[in-house]
Amino acid sequence: MIDQDLLFQWGAITKKVVAEEKVVEEDHPSYYYYQLLEGRLRAVNINEQGKEYLQYIVNPGETFAEIPLVIPTPFQITVVADIPSEIIKLPRDRFDTLLVNHPHLQAELSKVLANRLRLKYIITKELCNHNPQHSILSLLEYLQKEGKHICKACNKVKLTRQQIADMLGLRVETVIRAIRDLYDRELLVIQNGKVFYPARVHNT
Q1: pLDDT value at position 200?
Q2: How do residues 61-98 score in pLDDT, each as one tens digit?
Q3: CA atoms of 60 and 89, how far apart (whole Å)
Q4: Which residue, 61, 57, 53, is CA-closest to 41?
Q5: 113 Cβ partners below 8 Å, 6+ apart?
Q6: Is the peptide bond before 198 cis (omega within 30 degrees of 0)?
Q7: Rounded to a whole number, what is the distance in angstroms from the first to the last CA of the chain?
Q8: Nearest C-alpha neighbor of 82 from the set 106, 58, 102
Q9: φ and ψ at residue 64, rounded to 5 degrees
Q10: What is the mean pLDDT of residues 23-42?
């Protein structure tokens, strides 16, 4: 979201984390602006039984856990490293000053929050739908329009079936069956175990 050189100019530091390490935890206070430099993170809520509900995936260059930067509240999510990763941390007081000196970044932050909220609305609507095929198509359509987790060149979906299930609150077995049904209806393509959306013929 923010040029990393600019972050370092304002005093940001980096931190390396190992796979499955928690970067931030739900209900803990926030002291930093966070941005992913390398690796991949997942933002989740964890219930009392330890089951994760996937909110979103963080890729290099993206910010995460940003709500406490806007309103004084603890983290609403837990962010965990999927793989060994490196994050950028900027103390929130310096981040506030950065926004004053670069006001266009406030608009960018607002767009991030709006897109997070839009995805939340889509998923909440689909949770009431009770039609896994429709829920999966709605999620893929949103991701395709946003240019996230779907290859622009080949249409390959970069989410696993488990990740789709976690985002939609479904069992992975349900997602597997639903994806197969969507394939039979020619609404998406399955090739070498990979899912492609929108449906089209691939030679890879």
Answers
A1: 67
A2: 999 999 998 888 999 999 999 999 999 999 999 999 99
A3: 14
A4: 57
A5: 66, 67, 70
A6: yes
A7: 32
A8: 58
A9: -155, 160
A10: 96
Q: Which residues of 90-102 are buried (b: 16+ CB within 10 A; e: fewer)?
A: beeeebeebbeee
Distance of CA 85 to the CA centre of its chain: 15
* pTM listed for this prediction: 0.79
C-alpha pair distances (Å), 85 with each of 19, 32, 81, 169: 7, 17, 7, 26
pLDDT-based confidence at 116, cuts 50/70/90? confident
What's the one-letter identity of residue 94?
R
Q: What is residue 169's predicted lDDT score, i.e. its pLDDT?
A: 84
| Cα 161 to chain centroid, rounded | 15
Examine the pLDDT at 201 and tell me if it is beyond 80: no
Pick the closest to residue 163 from 16, 52, 25, 59 (CA basis): 52
For residue 193, give the amino acid letter: G
Q: Quote the tokens at residue 149.
A: 């987790």
The amino acid at residue 98 is L
| pLDDT(204) > 50 | no
**Separation between Cα atoms, residue 176 and residue 189, nearest integer Å:** 13
